[in-house]
Structures are given as structure tokens and as C-alpha cells.
Design goal:
The structure holds 2 protein chains of 2 kinds. Chain A is an alpha/beta fold. Chain A has helices at 8-18, 47-60, 80-86, 89-92, 104-121, 133-148, 161-172, 195-202, 223-232, 252-255, 317-320, 333-371, 394-403, 433-445; strands at residues 66-67, 125-126, 152-156, 177-181, 208-213, 236-241, 259-263, 279-283, 296-300, 306-310, 376-377, 386-390, 406-407, 410-411, 422-426. Chain A starts with 7 loop residues before the first helix and ends with a helix. Chain B has a domain at 396-524: Aspartate Aminotransferase, domain 1 (Alpha-Beta Complex).
Chain lengths: 447, 544
Amino acid sequence: MTYSPHTDADRATMLAAIGVASVDELFDDIPASVRAGGWDVPPPLAEQEVRAELARLARRNRIPEVSFLGAGVYRHLVPAVVGEVIGRPEFATAYTPYQPEVSQGTLQSIYEFQSLICELTGMEVATASHYDGATATAEAALMACRLTRRDRIAVSAGVSPDTRRVLATYCSGPGIEIVTVPIDLSQGGTGTTDPAVAAAALGSDAACLVAAQPNFHGQIEPMRDLAEVAHAAGAQLVAVVEPTSLSILEAPGAYGADIVAAEGQPLGIPASFGGPFVGLMAARMGSVRQMPGRLVGATRDVEGRRGYVLTLQAREQHIRREKAASNICTNQALMALAATTYLAAVGPSGLREVAELSITQARHLVTALESAGLARRRFGGSYFAEVTVTVPDAARRHAALVEQGIVAGHLAERDEPDLRDTLLLATTELTTDDDIDRLVEALAATR
Amino acid sequence: MSVADAPGVHDPSGRGSAFSGATGGTSESVVEPLVFERSRPGRRAVRFPAASERARAAAIGQPVVPEFARRAAAPGLPELSELELLRHYNRLAHLNQAIDLNFYPLGSCTMKYNPKVNEWAAALPGLADSHPFDPEPLAQGSLELMWLLAELLEDISGFCAVSLQPAAGAHGELTGMLMTRAFHRDNGEGEQRRKVLVPDSAHGTNPATATMVGYETVTIPSNQRGGIDLGALRGALGPDVAALMITNPSTLGIFEDQIDQVVAAVREAGAIAYMDGANLNAILGRFRPGAAGFDVMHFNLHKTFSTPHGGGGPGAGPVGVGERLEPYLPAPIPVLAEGDPAEVRANAWAGRSTPGARFALDADRPRSIGKVRSCHGNFGMFVRAYTYIRSNGGPGLRTISEDAVLAANYLRVRLRDAYDLPYDRPNKHEVVFSGRRQKREHGVSTLDIAKAVLDHGMHPPTIYFPLIVEEAMLIEPTETESLETLDRFVSVMHDIAGQVAADPDSVRRAPVTTPVGRLDEAAAARRPDLRWAHDGDEETASPA
């Protein structure tokens, strides 16, 4: 079916007004040599038919009964109120607030989002959001290059491989060199970024050090020390963080991060096979004019009412064109609204409960695996709510569990050949004791 | 809800008056307090269970989060009950204009109706709860959907391959330009080809994208008929040109009637022909850019294929490519690893799965530019776009473009006596007028006219774009607006033209019925207030 309201009578009215005999005449300007021939797009479906087709595809997926998979995307509770708010058509079917007088809902919610991200990160200014955490990280690194007028960056190997891939693609544009700061991934190693190794990689001409807290392997990084070595090299620290962890972990603003980037998906957004998500970016106010993307600011209307507008647009592509700070046009407003509603719904104590439950279950999981003699922690130091464990014959056993609808986390060797026979296991507040029991049982059965 | 339920937008008795009761206890100068200002310590909307005894006991002995990494004070998040929270965002929702409320003819943005069955599909637990790194055997439905959508987009556009990864139109542009550069490098011309040609009517994202890839932008003028100046294009093309980025139909709503010659000239010069697909809604079933010789195009799923704009995202900007750029597509790509493509397609079109078919992600693409986004792109948008394309089917897609073009041409002839029409020729899905006469004769700007439209409960057209038209008003009605709505818009625009002549001051005062009046954008930029602060100044202080 189509969603066009036009009857043949309507079309005849319009054709007559335009003064053409048929709609085909309105396409006469397409040169004959390049006019489309046929195509194989299938016939239309009625709503019940299209529903059946989409239900078929949804059924072809098998949502695991038990999953410890994270690796950057986490299954958290999405409170019902979040879906209700972002489902409102006034938010969902509006566009970029070009006319602020009829877009105060969107604008104020973005201002609230920016404020919440500042609260969470301890930073002074946050953008209206980015496509995802990986592109926010890439844009943060490019921003550091503009701020320092340098064209080399150091990236910790503790940053997620997916993010590092996107970072590499973005840096290839302007020709920015990436130096990877290796981390000790051996059994019993630290699994964290060594500040001395980072300092060596930074040298004296790097624009930034990009490091993740917690890092991809779940380990807690010495961010304060990394900030120090970055600053000593005249470079910025780009901190890549997990937002729910910030109810417990030190705010990046407090340990000296210059730019913060994050994947906002854990804040009320379903995994949805990878998107839509929302990228978070925050920085110091002194850097605001080099920030990419949209910003909303408070102001007054002609009668003195408080109101909100898109501001500092002189950085952006629609004004600056080839001199813009980025080509980014939209943000991810509806996903930012999901994160905003989520943070307001859980509040400070709820966010802390999410983090504490996740942390507790991660430790419960490790104890259960260790006491069953199935796995041991790969690294020393401490971890947050995701943990790398060494499991003999991990690839085979991971695959065997998939057959039973159990995902034993992320098979780390897929991204990191040095991490053979290790699993990266994530827990959240949704991880139950029963989930842990089932994983332990199933793993034991594959011995 | 209806427009009449949207307080402030249509309330003739006074701006935002419907809110003063609703928000109780706030100052007159605040339409709706910030969520922080509604916070009361101890309230909350969501509770979580405590960890079990067993879990807590088992955690003992494991390393704790070390003191050095702990946060001193909790983040200053607001505390609200669920009802207070919901009312706050419902009130904010009332302050928005949206497609579901009224006409939204924002040129270049294709604000068409977003069908609700698309939302139903995207929320199906089997899709919404699918983890992007789930092992392939568990994700066959997601992978099949992506593969099928790519097949459909290829068919619609005439390209031989598609990457779904880019998250927005501008992101698709970046992908296209990175592939362009990789192609020239592989041909040993990476150093030599430094320039990207962009018509003066282009979206700002085109030159900004070229810069991000390290290219220099050269602007090509439009001719008097609104098309690209072919002579100027030929003059600019040479061995130093990497690509032409062209929007077709252009941002003037005009199909480049020499597009065959444009593409031929670009290819002859060894450059890449990039089509900005923002305006694809005008040409479905009529012009297939890949078949016409373009090398690459981005789709805007949020424009042509009806995924909601969300107040500025999420969108999705897949790219289609011809053979020259296919090796450079972002990896991984969903592929049919086992099975006959024709059979799988035929079965899917009939609503059946194909026994033995297996889908996979192909990451083994040595010449790929790499990843442009985490995971696989904005999958939720793929679900909506696939649902939309299947609902409409081939004939429906053709009807979409016909009706979109019909509606825009109808507005052209109905409004040309009231406003200047710089290019009076049949247009495609949008039409650009100029308010220069109103400006010159009555001192009323296009901005004023747009604000007057707000007082009629409609969203105004895009204004001051494209840049090459003085006092531009770019109107895109889309195919989903009824003739009655189009006629009402015509009468609103005529009324405003009359008001401009009779009482220009009243137009300059508009809008007077919206929740807030014109906002001081200069002050916002001069003294940026970009966040609420607990101990803020008078601009952000809590209203008692």
C-alpha cells in the first residue's frame, strides 16, 4: 500500500492546475538515454502481510536465553517510561529545530541532555550528541588535532577494537597518524595501559592519548596517570567511558580528561543489532569553538521568557561549508532523548544501583567460574562489570554453548589474536543468579 | 492527539497560557521548568532489586573497585517520580510542531508521513533485542533483513552494491569521499587528484565532507535555468579533479536535464561521479543513478524511506556504488554465504524463509576503507525502511515520486502570483520561491514570513537555502499531504502575502501564538549558556 492520500480526482485537479495532461510530462526533463527501465522491486503488501514478513525475520533471529555478551553494547533494563516518551510523535516526527518557536520540546530536552552529560562526566560542555560512541571518539580525536595543531595521535589498545577501526577510518581522511599503545595481555598481565609506554608513544608531538575507562577488557585504567603523561607531552586526554559506570567511577573531568567520548547505548537504548545508538561528547568550555556537532543554548524570547536555540552554529557545515569543524549535520536527538529520560528516571541512586548490581554479579560470576575450576581471571588489577577470563578451548566451547542458546560472552580472539582461549564476559543489573548457574553448568558440560 | 490539544501552538487566548496552570509554582517567564528544577531529593521513577545474599557472598574476595578510581560525589542527576517525569516530557512534547500534528513542508528534508507499522516492526523483540555481536547462527533474521534491504536499494538505485553502515546522509558522503580517495590512490593518482567540484546550490555537508577527507572544494556555478553550468563544469574538470558531488534533483528542486552529459564529462576526466541522494524521493522508478553512470550515491532512509526524523536523528545514510568503487565499501558487509540469491529473494518476496540459506558478515575485504560506524549501522532504521519498501512495493514507490512531484508543481503554480519564482519551470518534489519582493517593497524578510506561518499552526518551509536564491523559501510538500492540506497552505501563504502588504509590522511581530516568541539568538551565541548548573546564575537559577 502507499500512504498517499490522493484520489484520481485529486490528481486530475492538480494536473489541470499545473496545465499538463499527465504526470509523465513532469518527468520529461530526464534525458531519454538515462530514464529508468524496469526494476524487480516486489509488489506491495497489505499491513497484515508486511507484519507477517517482519515477524518471519524476527523469528529467524534467536535471542539467547542467557547471554554474557557485551563488548561495547549492553543489555540493560529500558524502563517503560523511556519508550513512552521517545514514542511520542511530537518528538519522533519533528525535525532539527530550525524554528525554535515550535521546537522548544526538542530544544529543551537537548539542553537537559547536555546538562546531564556534563553532570555525569564532570565536564563543562557537552554536544547535542553524535551517531555513536565510535564516531564520537573519532571526532574527539580530530578535535584534539585541531586544538593542538598536531597530526599524530596515540590510542590505547584498551580502546574497543570496533572503535579503533572507526577511528582509523576517520583519521585516514585528513591523514592523521595513529600510534597504538600496546597493553600487556599475557596471563597475569596488567591488562591496562602503562603510563610509561603511553608516554613513549606520545613523544612530544602527539595531539592526544585516547584511553578507555573501563577498558575493552573490563579492566580499570589508571586514568589520572594517563592524563598526567598526556599533559606532560602537551597532548590532550580523550577519555572513552561507559556511562553507567560513572555513578561509581571517578568523573573524567576530575582526573583531567580534556575531551570525553562515550557510547550512550546503555542509557535506555535497546541493542537493536547495533543501532540506532547515541554518541556522547563533552569537553572544556575553552575548547567549545572546536567542538563538532550541534549545541543548544539557553536564551530569552522577545517577552523575556526563557527559551532554547541552536547556538554557536558558526562552527557548523551549513554556515561554514568547507571550513566547518565537521560535516556532521544532525545529531541523534531521539536517542539523546532516550538517554535523558533514562537518566532522569533512574536518578542518582538508580544509576548507582545499576552499576553496583552489575559489579556484584561480575564478581559472583568470576567466583562461580573459578570455584568450578572452569576459568580464571586473565589479568591482575581490578575490573568493572566486564571481565576477561581464560578458558581452555574457548572457541569450541563458546560455539557449543551457542547451540543451546547461551552466549558465553565475546570470544576475544576474534579481535585480538593474542587473546586465545579467553572470553570477555559482561554482567548487568539484568544478570540473574540463575544465568550464572546456567553458564557454569553448560561450560562444565563441555569439558 | 490533535493540534487543538497542543497548548500554546494554537491557543489564540495567549501564548502558553495553557501551561500556567499545568506547571504551577513556576515563574511567568518559564514555559516548562527544566527536569532539574522539578527534582526533589528522594523521589524516583525506577527501582532495581538488591543483589541476592548468594551474589554478595560470592563477590567477597574478588577485587573491589579501587579507591583511586572511585568518584567522590554522585553525579547531579534529577530525582522525579514516574508521573512527574512523564508529565514533564509530555509538556515538552506539546511545545513541538511535528508531522503527526500538521503540515511540515521543510524543503530538502522530505518530511513525509512515518507509517506506524514501521515502528511496530522495529520494536519486535526478536529484532530490538538482537545483539550486534551475537554469533551469526543466532542473528540470521537480522542479517537476512540487511541483505534483503541492500538488494532492494540496489534495485531501486541501479547500483551493484550497497553498504548500510553510514548513520546519516553526511556520514554517507564521508564514506563516498573516502572510497573516492582510495580508488584514486590505487590508480596512482592519489596525489594528483586534490579537488572536489561542488555546485553552488549544494548542501553545506558536501564541501564540509570534502574537507574532512583532505580535498579542496571548487564551487561550480549554476546556470540561469537552475542547472549546473556545463561549460563551467567542463572547464573545471581535469587531471587534478577527484570527484563531482552533485545533488540531483538539485536543491532547487530541478532535475539536471543534462545529467547524461554531466556524468559523461566527469567520467571522461577520470573523476568519480557522486550523487547526493537527498532528493531521491522525486525520482523513484524514473531515474536510477547507478544505471545512469554515477559511481556512488548515499540514500537518506529518513527522507525517502520514511524513518522518523526524531527531532534531528537517528537517520541512516547507506551508500550504493558501481563497480569501480565496490572493492572499497566499508566492511563488514552482510552476504548470502550459502544459498541461491534469486531463490532467497523470491522466497522472501513471498514471505518465506529459504531452507539451507545462510547469511554472514563478510569482513574479508582487503581494499575496504574500513569501518565508518560501530557494529553494522542504524539497524532499527533498516527495519523501518525495509517495512516501508515492502509495504509500498515497486508500483507504490513509483506513485510516491509521482505524487510528490505533482504536489510540488501544484504549489508552484498556486503560489507564483504571491511570491517570486526564480526558476519558473516544472520542478520535481520541491520548489523554491523568493521573498525578495516582500523584502524590497515592504521590508518584510523571509524570516518574518516563516514566523507568520507558525501562527497558522504549520511548519514553515526551509528558508535561506539554497544559498544562491535571495530570501529563499524551499517548499517540499511530499506525497503524503492531502489536497485539502495543500490548499490550506496555499491560502495561508496568500493571506501572509496580503498581510505583508497591508500591515508589515504585524508580520515582523510574528509569531504571537507559539509557546515562546522570537528568541535572542545573538545573545545565546555571545554568552553561551549550554548547561544547567546547580548554583547557576540568574539565567539558569531555579524559579523559586
